[in-house]
Every structure is written in C-alpha cells, then in structure tokens.
Amino acid sequence: MISGYLILPTYSGYLVAYNLSLTETTEATIDTFKQAFNVANNAEPLVHTDRGAAYTSSLFNDFMFQKNTIRSMSRPGIPYDNSLMERYWNEFKVRWLRTHPCPTTYGELEMLVAEGVKYFNTIRHSEKRNGLTPEEFRHKAISKQLIA
Q: Integrase catalytic domain location, by residue (predicted)?
C-alpha cells in the first residue's frame, strides 16, 4: 500500500510539501516535514497530525522538538479534528485522481500526483480565497506580512 504525506497550511490551502512512500514510515514523514521547513524558511509552526504510528514515534517527536514546533493531535474517535486535511484529500481524489487514467506504475503515480499538486496550488481558483489560487493567496499574504 502506498502512503501519502501532505503538509497543508490552514490559511492558504497551498500544499507546501508532499511525499509518496511504498509504506508508512517515520522517515518518510520526517522527509516531508524537512521539505516543508525548507519552503517555510524554518518557521516554528503549530503542527496538527492524526495519531498514526509515524506521528507518535519518538524519532518524529524528537525531530519536531528540534524544530520548535507546537504539536497538536487528533482526539481518538473524532474525525472532525482532521477535517481540513480530509477535505483536501477528498477534493484531490474526486477532482484530480478520478478524472485521469489510473496509473499502472509507481512512476506514473508520482507524475500524476505532482501534476495534481501543481494544478491545485497554481491553477485552481477558489471563491474562499477571493478567486485566487492558493499560490496567489499565499504570496499576497506573505507580501502583506513583509509590509506590515
């Protein structure tokens, strides 16, 4: 089973990092967060995860501690805690994966996911972001912070 890891800021919907792995591992999770910290200039964010084994491992928690993050985890049996990520996954599957031919190789899957991430980040406009793409919305928010 292939596992996917996503880092999605709540404010913009811009997917800052993702990773595919043949199995769920702590190392793949940490690699995804390393990508995110590089994109976000080593920000010290609040990180919310589910209670999967990779997120509860001491290796992952030590890594997050080193990055000065504040941790939040979903409560057992409360799926609404992850509603933002669940909605993103649903949109990605319904509006992207299901509208394209099913990949037959791991390489094809990687390409399909990369194209989908690019589409959702840079092409797909949203009314909840005033008609902007997540990338446009993110850049606008960053420029306002630099000015303020």
A: 1-142
Q: What pLDDT, on the 0 to 100 scale, is given for residue 11?
A: 79
User: Can you tell me the distance from the alpha carbon of 82 to that of 74, in angstroms, rounded to the nearest whole number?
Assistant: 7
Tokens linked to 95? 């509006």
Extended strands (E) in 22-127: 46-49, 70-73
Instruction: Look at residue 18 and give its three-state secondary structure.
Output: strand
Structure tokens at 116: 């989908």
CATH class as words, domain 3-147: alpha beta
Is the pLDDT score of 89 beyond 80? yes
Selection from 36, 76, 37, 39 nearest residue 56 by Cα: 76
Distance, CA of 116 to CA of 93 (rounded, Å) = 10
The SS3 call for residue 68 is coil
User: Could you state, in order of their start, the residue ranges of all structural domains in the chain?
Assistant: 3-147
Please state whether the predicted TM-score (pTM) of the whole model is above 0.90.
no
Alpha helices in the chain (DSSP H): 26-39, 53-56, 58-66, 83-95, 106-118, 134-147
